[in-house]
């Protein structure tokens, strides 16, 4: 891209020559920075003419901003030694996620071959199955229950009665509810098969998407559920690219460097990875041209990413915040935190034995990625939704360690840090930013070991019945700040600026 210019122009199709835009063949739910730094970038780089129609999650703002720029935005690749700028053109149209007319119209077209999802761990609205059975749609969840009732009430033949916003008189809020309406339109149109690709940090995320969507379908229309079983392929994928929130300084930097007043740039590290497993019955972009890897068994790759990258992230988000740090790079520069990260990685690495995984090289690369001094990746951003994230990132490592006859203490530390930070935040009237915030607040009212047990039950009810896990966490609580405030972990309070 050319050097800095002094006069800034808006970014849109009249100021930036894109050539013919690609045909929309992918629908995306969850239009956010990560999607734009990852799947949109892979699709652009595949270079075979696939375009995306993206739907927002909660707020329609991102769609409005992107449409004002004809879908164009700058991707800033932020390396330790400087920025590279690229304008992405694969995002062809953007919609309010509540707009089920637009979603149904798109999904009813045979051209649309893929639905990708970045709706966060919480977006699947799953509840753990009893005794470790697979998770299922949480029908006790208020939004799920409201959508089920409204969908039942608005069913008309094979589809649903749509109004200006959502169902006539009801805004569908859950991803499963929205997707169900769109897929009903597809089935009614002609029923072409389609792939749903989950791009969220959950183990077996394809199965999670399936459980969420089929759970909703079974409650609303068993015939539609049967159609989904037969025609929708749920693809598992492990996604990776560190994407901090865009700041005003980033926007100013983009204007300075490119000459475009882009209101919606996105900043990401240069590294990106996407590993996928599953069928694409209606075709797909040649994402492998952009470096994506297609495998038969995703699990080893998924564990490596979720445990080593995300597990360390969550450990740093809570332990680092307790110790007064604000970003990943700051937390990692703290010798004690980096030792805990190494201990956590040693525990996880015992169970990542496939030689293709090359764990030593992966760990070395992670250390470098985390230390990138130009990426301000805030612990507060990563620390959100801890009850769900820890269940995917720390609990499985602990279980694997116990299964091998070890105490798994290194994998309990992220849980202890989350508990200490949550209690400290609640005691100063701060929000814990978690879908289970109410349960966390109630659990925090207990004291001592009872509090540890109650907080652990919010993350994993089965694990909370394991006295070794509870006492292992209890021993770590209150030891993570300098000097440790142990043994009465109730008195712990974070140092300096907490998120
Ligand atoms: C982070 C992830 O916010 C978080 O929970 O751990 O978003 C992480 O940055 C990405 O998974 C990196 O690929």
Annotation keywords:
N-(1-d-carboxylethyl)-l-norvaline Dehydrogenase, domain 2, 20 helices, about 500 residues, three-stranded mixed β-sheet, 2 domains, Rossmann fold, binds D-mannonic acid, alpha/beta
Characterise this structure:
- This protein has 499 residues and is of the alpha/beta class.
- The chain has two domains: 286 residues, Rossmann fold (3-Layer(aba) Sandwich); 178 residues, N-(1-d-carboxylethyl)-l-norvaline Dehydrogenase, domain 2.
- 44% of the residues lie in helices and 14% in strands.
- The chain is built from 20 helices and 17 strands.
- The strands form five sheets. Strands 6-3-2-7-12-13-16-17 form an eight-stranded mixed β-sheet, sandwiched between helices.
- The radius of gyration is 23 Å and the shape is globular.
- D-mannonic acid (CS2) binds next to helix 10 and helix 14.
């Amino acid at each position: 891209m050319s050097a800095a210019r002094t006069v800034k122009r808006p970014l849109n199709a009249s100021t930036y020559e894109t050539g013919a835009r690609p045909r929309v063949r992918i629908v995306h739910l969850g239009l956010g920075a990560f999607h734009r730094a990852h799947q949109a970038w892979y699709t652009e780089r595949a270079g075979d003419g696939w375009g995306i129609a993206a739907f927002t999650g909660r707020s329609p703002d991102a769609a409005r901003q992107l449409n004002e720029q004809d879908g164009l935005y700058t991707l800033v690749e932020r390396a330790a030694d400087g920025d590279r700028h690229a304008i992405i053109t694969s995002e062809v149209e953007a919609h309010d996620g509540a707009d089920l007319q637009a979603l149904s119209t798109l999904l009813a077209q045979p051209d649309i071959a893929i639905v990708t999802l970045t709706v966060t761990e919480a977006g699947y609205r799953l509840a753990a199955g009893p005794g470790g059975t697979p998770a299922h749609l949480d029908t006790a969840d208020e939004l799920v229950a409201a959508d089920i009732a409204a969908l039942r009430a608005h069913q008309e033949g094979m589809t649903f009665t749509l109004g200006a916003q959502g169902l006539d008189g009801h805004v569908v809020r859950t991803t499963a509810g929205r997707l169900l309406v769109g897929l009903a339109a597809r089935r009614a149109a002609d029923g072409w098969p389609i792939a749903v690709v989950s791009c969220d940090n959950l183990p077996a995320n394809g199965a999670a998407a399936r459980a969420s969507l089929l759970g909703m379908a079974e409650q609303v229309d068993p015939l539609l559920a049967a159609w989904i079983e037969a025609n929708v392929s749920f693809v598992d994928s492990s996604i990776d690219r560190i994407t901090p929130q865009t700041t005003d300084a980033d926007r100013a930097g983009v204007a300075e460097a490119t000459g475009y007043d882009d209101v919606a740039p996105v900043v990401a590290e240069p590294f990106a990875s996407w590993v996928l497993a599953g069928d694409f019955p209606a075709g797909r972009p040649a994402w492998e041209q952009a470096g994506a890897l297609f495998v038969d068994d995703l699990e080893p790759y998924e564990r490596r990413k979720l445990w080593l990258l995300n597990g360390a992230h969550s450990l740093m988000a809570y332990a680092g915040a307790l110790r007064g740090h604000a970003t990943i790079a700051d937390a990692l520069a703290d010798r004690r935190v980096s030792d805990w990260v190494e201990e956590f990685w040693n525990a996880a690495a015992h169970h990542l034995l496939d030689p293709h995984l090359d764990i030593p090289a992966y760990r070395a690369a992670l250390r470098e990625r985390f230390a990138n001094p130009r990426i301000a990746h805030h612990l507060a951003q990563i620390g959100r939704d801890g009850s769900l994230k820890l269940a995917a990132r720390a609990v499985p490592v602990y279980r694997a360690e116990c299964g091998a006859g070890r105490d798994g203490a290194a994998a309990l530390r992220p849980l202890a840090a989350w508990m200490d930070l949550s209690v400290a935040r609640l005691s100063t009237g701060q929000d814990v930013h978690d879908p289970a915030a109410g349960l966390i607040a109630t659990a925090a009212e207990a004291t001592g070991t009872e509090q540890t047990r109650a907080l652990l039950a919010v993350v994993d009810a089965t694990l909370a019945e394991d006295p070794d896990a509870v006492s292992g966490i209890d021993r770590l609580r209150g030891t993570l700040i300098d000097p440790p405030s142990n043994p009465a972990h109730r008195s712990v309070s974070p140092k300096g600026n907490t998120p």
